Amino acid sequence: MEGSREPVLDAKAELIDFQWKLGMAVSSDSCRSLKYPYVAVMLKVADHSGQVKNKSFEMTIPQFQNFYRQFKEIAAIIETV
């Protein structure tokens, strides 16, 4: 059920660590040859009680490019404050 999914991050979470890697999917059990790049992101966050959790997700290259563009926009806005 979509409504019962745990959110990726709590709005009050503190980012402890951010790691990423570029990967290449070459095959799977249902497809012999995929050959598509992806970005894997690993986050370590502490919730409001201090409990540290690891979160990870993968993005396609277009998704990552959009993610990057949004962070550049955020950085530009922060510089004007």
TrEMBL record:
Pfam families: COMM_domain. One of its GO terms (molecular function) is NF-kappaB binding. Transmembrane segments: none annotated. Scaffold protein in the commander complex that is essential for endosomal recycling of transmembrane cargos; the commander complex is composed of the CCC subcomplex and the retriever subcomplex. May modulate activity of cullin-RING E3 ubiquitin ligase (CRL) complexes. Down-regulates activation of NF-kappa-B. Inhibits TNF-induced NFKB1 activation. InterPro entries: COMM, COMMD4/6/7/8. This is COMM domain-containing protein 6. It comes from Equus asinus. PANTHER family: COMM DOMAIN-CONTAINING PROTEIN 4-8 FAMILY MEMBER, COMM DOMAIN-CONTAINING PROTEIN 6. The gene is COMMD6. Residues 14-81 form the COMM domain. Belongs to the COMM domain-containing protein 6 family.
